[in-house]
Structure formats: C-alpha cells, structure tokens
Amino acid sequence: MVNDSIIPPEAILNPYTPLAFLPPEFANNYEIIRYMHVATLMAYTWDWLMSMPEEYAIARDVGITAPNIAYFLSRVGTFGSCLGTFLIIVPIENCEIIKYIESGFAEISVPATSLLFFFRLKAVYRHSRIIIAIFGIFWLAIAGLSISIMLSLTVGE
User: Fold this and answer.
1) Which residues constitute the signal peptide according to the record (predicted)?
2) CB-CB contact of 80 with 122 (8 Å)
3) Handedness of CA 44, 47, 49, 52 (dihedral sign)
4) What is the DSSP string of the chain?
5) Cα distance between residue 134 and residue 117, in whole Å
6) Contact 121, 65 (CB under 8 A)
7) Half-sphere exposure of 125 (CA within 13 A, CB side)
8) Angle 95-124/66-88 helices, nearest 10 degrees?
9) Distance CA 47, CA 62 (A)
10) What is the separation, in whole angstroms, between the first and last Cα of the chain?
11) Mean pLDDT of the chain
C-alpha cells in the first residue's frame, strides 16, 4: 500500500512553491483561508478609507470625547488585528513577533468595540441605573478577560 501523504520531491513540478509539499486537500483549505484574510483586510481598508472624511468631520466638529476615543481605538485596533492576521499568512522568518503584535491590536480592538456598545446602551437606558451597572460589569469582564487571554498567549511554530 502506498502512502498518499508523502510526495517525492521529483514528482513536484515546482518544488519552490510553499504549498507544494502539503496534501492537496490541506493546501486547498489553507489557500482559501489566505484568500479570506486578504479579502477581509481589503474590505476593511476600503471601508475605512471611504469613511475617513466623515470621521474627520465628526472629530473636528464634536471634539475629543470618550466615545470618539473608543471609536478610533476600535478602528485602529481592528485594522491592526486584520493586518497582523494577514501578515501571519505571509511566509516570514519571525512569525512570533507578528502574532504578539496582532494580539496586542486585538487587545485594543475588543474592549474598545464593546465600550462603544456600552456607550450606546448607556444612551438608550439612561434612566435605568441597574441596566447600566449590569452592562458596565459585563464590559469590565470583557476587558479583563481580553487582558488575561493576551497574557496567556503562547505562540508556537
């Protein structure tokens, strides 16, 4: 019985292709994931570039407020996380530092985005202190868990 998972190098037309030594189904799935990361980064970049004039006008007119700071931290954190995820699929020497940077941006993005939700909830339920307190505790839990996830991060090959 022949083992299908081992491909001899002389059977490969271009042995310098990164996915040439992987089984075809694994290489196909990996390629689809890479395309999805590129598409996500490009869509997010396009969205941010198209909304920058309005965001600048809002920041100029309203000024520096806590929701604006949370919004821009969420934008920068999400963009950095998408960029870090995109760079993970690029074959580079030291991928550990990129994974830590990507996790750092995710650490900024997740609490900032959930803080935006908390600000919206606070505006809708401004007369209900109980709901605001409960969701404030939820936001603190999200921020704390986000920090603990980052501190427990280990990167392998």
Assistant:
1) none
2) no
3) negative
4) ---TT---GGG-S-TTSTTTTS-HHHHHHHHHHHHHHHHHHHHHHHHHHHHHHHHHHHHHHH-S-HHHHHHHHHHHHHHHHHHHHHHHTS--S-HHHHHHHHHHHHHHHHHHHHHHHHHHHHHHTTT-HHHHHHHHHHHHHHHHHHHHHHHT-----
5) 13
6) no
7) 14
8) 150
9) 22
10) 32
11) 85
Residue 53 · residue 88 · CB < 8 Å: no
Query: Which amino acid belongs to residue 114?
Result: S
Phi, psi of 92, deg, nearest 5 = -130, 165
pLDDT in tens, 21-59: 778 788 888 888 889 989 999 999 999 999 999 999 988
